[in-house]
Amino acid sequence: MTQLRDFKIFADLGPKDLAVLENMVRRIKYGQGEIIYQEGAPAFGFYLVFSGRVKVVKRTLGGKKQILKIVGPGETLGETTLFDKGVHIAYAKTLTPAEVGFLERGDFFGFLERHPSVVFRMFEKLSEELKAFQCKLAERSYNGSKERLARIILKLGESGIELSRTELAEMAGVSSKTAIRTLGELEDRGVISVNDRAITVLDPDSLQKMAEPFPFSLDESLII
């Protein structure tokens, strides 16, 4: 299982500092499909993913959903509200059984005062995610549904994550009908095979030609 030393934001900390931090973390185990925090709920800290996979989802006023990102071991949740003390703008739900650690804001801020290097590591992480979301926004504006789905399928294939067709549509920002039709086309062409929730990439070169990857690499535990 992932340990505190494996989180990039804590990469500069020594064993003693990690031990102090470990005492601040409240670990919680979740089953598959459980809510970690709700959209609109007050944020009192942030979360560390030690095991499992979690999706972060934004609802629209019309009831539609957009999966903003999927995070795995070594990633964080709810960090965007850490400094503004606002409410969560999306909800987090487990895709698999997971173990998540909660760090209360006040305790963590006291720790940051003694370890400013963690602040820079966090800003580095937030900057990376911001760039990824900017790329995804451009992707939504200029790329077709097939290109968007191709990129997501490639990333899911690399990580071994299984999503339903509805979740895949929510991740790519297309309708379920479009996702089902596109998956069928790709399967007929022998590019992928679909078995229930499992999508196996048979011809990655064809998918790579369709997809427009981000101009930088994200950690394998983070899919945006």
SSE diagram, text form:
Blueprint: H1 15-22, E1 26-30, E2 35-37, E3 45-51, E4 54-59, E5 65-71, E6 76-77, E7 91-94, E8 98-104, H2 105-114, H3 117-142, H4 145-159, H5 165-172, H6 176-188, E9 192-195, E10 198-201, H7 204-210, E11 222-223
Structure description:
There is one protein chain. This protein has 224 residues and is α+β, with helices and mostly antiparallel strands. It contains 7 helices and 11 strands. The protein has helices at residues 15-22, 105-114, 117-142, 145-159, 165-172, 176-188, 204-210; strands at residues 26-30, 35-37, 45-51, 54-59, 65-71, 76-77, 91-94, 98-104, 192-195, 198-201, 222-223. Strands 2-7-4-5-11 form a 5-stranded antiparallel beta sheet. β9 (192-195) and β10 (198-201) form a beta hairpin. The mean pLDDT is 94.
| Class per helix and strand makeup | alpha+beta
Which superfamily, in CATH terms, is the homologous superfamily of the largest domain? Jelly Rolls
The rough form would be described as elongated
What's the main sheet like?
Answer: 5 strands, antiparallel
What portion of residues belong to β-strands?
Answer: 15-25%
What count of structural domains? 2
CATH class of the largest domain: Mainly Beta
Low-confidence stretches: none
What are the key terms here?
single chain; 224 residues; alpha+beta; Jelly Rolls; Arc Repressor Mutant, subunit A; 2 domains; 5-stranded antiparallel beta sheet; 4-stranded antiparallel beta sheet; 7 helices; 11 strands; 39% helix
